[in-house]
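Researcher: Please predict.
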Amino acid sequence: MKYDLVSVILPCYNEEESLAEEIRKIRETMDKSKIPYEFIVIDDASTDKTYEVAKAAGVTVLRHERNKGVGGGRKTGILAAKSDIIITSDADGTYPAHPIPEMIEALHDQDMVVGARVAERGTAFFLRYPVKLMIRKLASYMAGYRIPDLNSGLRVFKKSVALKYFYLLPDTHSWESTITLAFLCNHQKVKYIPIEYFKRSGGVSSFHPIKDTYNYISLIIRTILYFNPLRIFLPVTFGIFVIGLAKAIFDFTRFQRIGVMDALVILTGVVVLMAGLLANLMVVLSRKLDPIPSEPQGLKK
């Protein structure tokens, strides 16, 4: 499928060591594909020579006056993009560029195409891998879809669809997982293509194990509550009912009576269930979207 223009967005923070090579790699791939493109680099208030490296490469450079986070960089790039077809990646050399044309081609009947990493080779592997696996399994259950890669940074998607969920997307590392869940929970078409994943070629990861893991989990729960609250309320209700019923059976078997606490636990289950049904009704009846700014704010060109 032919496109008049696609937009490549590359957020970066203190990536002077790897940025020039990443730009060269993506440019080479896009030039070979003959797909017209614009290239936007978002410098997230770097303290090294990232801005100078990007300017020297001859791409469009937008600079945050203060550090917002990788999600904030992606959002700035999306708002500035001229095309409805958005390609995002990372500037640290961890993602390959050669799958991009295939991903663009696959977008013609999808809303988003994600590069699913076949192996985890990031920093602090033994700490991050089990945490990411747990979060991905939780997200897959919550969304009702098998998610091969929840937070891949390499993805191609339609700007017009992404803007519908802008109010949900955070400025942090949780941006990728949140947009994935927003698309899946709202039944947008998402396709996964296997890709390689490499170690960083320079710089230091800004991922914080405790803070960012907490953000991942809280944003997963918040996103699911917005789109499908019964995915959370029903298991909680079932758990409370099981505890209350087990306690009631135990008390009746041993003391030939059902205690007040047993009744309170079961009643709590009823209250949680009613709250879940009410939340689900509110989601079905009204889903108000926050207004989307037409221009990115706080930038220097």
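Model: The radius of gyration is 23 Å.
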